[in-house]
Write a structure and sequence with these properties.
single chain; alpha+beta; Aminopeptidase; seven-stranded mixed beta sheet; three-stranded antiparallel beta sheet; about 30% helix
Length: about 280
C-alpha cells in the first residue's frame, strides 16, 4: 500500500510503500510548504487525497483515526501545501508509523501520495527528506517502506536518489487490492531500508561518489511492464515477469545479497544491481 511510490512514466502513483517524484507544475500559485499535519481537518484532507490517488475501495482505505493516532504516538503525518497565504491546499502527504525491532525504534513509512498535477518534479523526495530530518532529530536512524519492484521509476528514486537498500521480499503482501495501480497482480513488495545516518545515504544526498560494490546479480524489468499490467490481454506477460523476478530476488537474498544500485536505459527499461552489503546495519 502506501505512495510511492510513485510515479511511473504513465503518471501513476507508486506504493509506499513508495515515494513518488513530484513538485508543482505551475497550475497553482504560491510556494509549496512542507510541514507536519496537526489539525483534524488536515488529517481529513489526507484521507481524501489518499482516496483520490489510490482509488481503493472503502474497505482498504486507511481511516482518519489512524492518521490522528500516528501523529500522537511518535509517527509522522507530513503534508505538502500549495497556494496563496489565504488559501492553502493539501497537495501531498506522507504517513509513517512507529515500529520496534530488537529493542530499536524505527519508522515504517506506510503511504505517500501526491496530487497528479504536482508529480514528477521532486516533491516526493522533498517529503522523504523532511521525514528524515524529523526522524534524526528524535534519534531515529532507520525508516522502512515497501515498494513494487515492477515500478521502474520509483525503484530508481528509492535506490539512486534516496540511497535505500533492499534485502527482503514480501510475496503478495496485501493480497489482491482494489487499486487499479496494481493491475490485478499479486501485491509483491521489496522492503526499502533507509539507514538515514549511513555513509551511503549521506553520499547520495550530497550527490558525491558513494562506495563501489561488486555487482553479483542483475534483475531486469522491461519498460513494457506498465502496458502489460494495464491490459487484461497482456497481463499474463506482466505476471510472468513478476514470477521470474520474485524467484531471482528470493534466491539472491537467501545468498546474502542486497539491492545496492539501479539502472535505467534510454528505452525506459530498469535493472536492479545486487551485491554484498555491510552486515553491521541490523535491527
Amino acid at each position: 500500500m502506501t505512495g510511492a511510490g510513485t510515479g511511473t512514466p504513465s503518471g501513476r502513483t507508486p506504493t509506499e510503500d513508495t515515494p513518488t517524484g513530484n513538485t508543482p507544475s505551475g497550475k497553482m500559485p504560491g510556494a509549496v510548504t512542507i510541514r507536519k499535519c496537526e489539525a483534524l481537518g488536515e488529517m481529513q484532507a489526507c484521507f481524501a487525497l489518499q482516496k483520490e490517488v489510490w482509488k481503493f475501495s472503502d474497505a482498504e482505505l486507511i481511516p482518519v483515526r489512524i492518521f490522528v493516532v500516528a501523529a500522537k504516538i511518535g509517527g509522522q503525518v507530513v503534508g505538502a501545501f500549495a497556494g496563496t497565504d489565504d488559501k492553502k491546499e493539501l497537495i501531498g502527504f506522507a504517513l509513517a508509523l512507529p515500529g520496534m525491532r530488537h529493542g530499536h525504534c524505527y519508522l515504517h513509512s506506510q503511504m505517500l501520495a501526491v496530487r497528479p498535477q504536482y508529480r514528477n518534479g521532486g516533491l516526493g523526495r522533498r517529503m522523504k527528506l523532511y521525514q528524515r530530518e524529523d526522524a534524526l532529530a528524535r534519534g531515529i536512524e532507520l525508516m522502512e517502506w515497501t515498494f513494487d519492484p515492477l515500478e521502474i521509476k520509483n525503484a530508481y528514486l528509492n535506490i539512486e536518489k534516496l540511497g535505500v537498500i533492499a534485502r527482503r521480499y514480501s510475496v503478495d503482501q496485501y493480497g489482491l487490492t482494489s487499486s487499479p495501480l496494481q493491475g490485478g497482480l499479486p501485491s509483491d513488495r521489496l522492503v526499502a531500508e533507509w539507514w538515514m545516518k549511513s555513509k551511503r545515504v549521506e553520499a547520495v544526498l550530497a550527490e558525491v561518489a558513494r562506495a563501489k560494490f561488486e555487482c553479483r546479480a542483475r534483475i531486469d524489468v522491461p519498460a513494457e511492464i506498465y502496458a502489460w499490467k494495464a491490459s487484461a490481454e497482456t497481463r499474463a506477460q506482466a505476471l510472468a515477469v513478476q514470477a521470474r523476478n520474485r524467484d531471482v530476488f528470493q534466491r539472491a537474498f537467501a545468498e546474502g545479497l542486497s539491492v545496492l544500485g539501479y539502472e535505467r536505459d534510454e528505452h525506459g527499461n530498469g535493472r536492479f544491481l545486487l551485491g554484498g552489503w555491510d552486515g553491521s546495519l541490523q535491527y
